[in-house]
Amino acid sequence: MTLFEMMQQAQNGQAMQNIARQYGLSPQQTQAAIDALLPAFSMGLQRQTQDPYAFGSLAQMMTASPFGHIFDANGDGIPDNARSAGTDVLSQLFGSKEVSNAVAAQAAATSGVGQAVLKQMLPVIAAMV
Predict the structure, then answer these.
(1) pTM of the predicted protein model
(2) Which position has the higher pLDDT, 85 or 95?
(3) Greater confidence, 112 or 16?
(4) If you ran DSSP here, which 8-state letter would residue 51 be given?
(5) Which among 43, 116, 127, 13 is positioned nearest to 81, based on CA atoms?
(6) φ/ψ (deg, to 5) at 6
(7) Into how many domains does the chain fold?
(8) pLDDT tens per residue, range 50-74
(9) What domain range is 62 assigned to?
(10) What are the CB-based long-range contacts (under 8 Å, 24+) for 74-80?
(11) N or C end: fewer C-beta atoms under 10 angstroms in the chain?
């Protein structure tokens, strides 16, 4: 299953609509933003698999935290804890806030969605994938 397929299944298939509503985006803008951000998540995950300790730490984080609840939320919106939980994942995947900011800047350039919105979306997406 690809990261994009995971996003499509998150929150009982409502994650994309919930993200659009949360950030005031159209479905097309949300799609463009997700398309622009997911390659960075994929690269971050690949980097984690190169270091068994880092991958183990990420796996432990994802199983011990509220991520299952966030992924399986019933489609009523983005859970309140998604941003804080996702921030920890971003730190693990990208290593620093500067890299997260660079990911948002690159995604803004390719998606047409503002960098400020993408910065807010990053931890929510991290909590879902």
Answers:
(1) 0.78
(2) 95
(3) 112
(4) S
(5) 127
(6) -60, -45
(7) 1
(8) 887 777 776 776 666 665 556 656 6
(9) 3-128
(10) 74/11, 74/12, 75/11, 75/12, 75/13, 75/14, 75/17, 75/18, 77/18, 77/21, 77/22, 78/18, 78/19, 78/22, 78/124
(11) N
